[in-house]
Amino acid sequence: AFAEGITLTTQPDAPVLAPADGRVRYAGEFQNYGLVLIIDHGGGFHSVLTGFSRLSATTEQWVLAGEPLGRVAAHGSLYIEIRRNGRPVDPLQWFTAGRS
Questions:
Q1: Cα separation of 67 and 78, whole Å?
Q2: Distance from CA of residue 15 to its chain's centroid?
Q3: Which of 53, 89, 93, 99 could cysteine-pair with 73, CB 3.0–4.6 Å?
């Protein structure tokens, strides 16, 4: 069983890197989630990331896997959700098995 995403714990101010190539569809504050980044990876896949202290990526920017997106907030937690056609998928399987 999995939640809609996973939370990774790291050092505050650690760099956050793009999980895969894609187009940033949203970068900014969203409701009470703080800074949010949504990346369209094609094929119906999107990643949603929260837990930033600051963003270096901007809306409509093309990013490559491993490219810096921003920095982790002082609490040291980064939340990642992978969605396919609007529905959550197990992010661990997506990262280990690809997007098939």
A1: 16
A2: 12
A3: 53
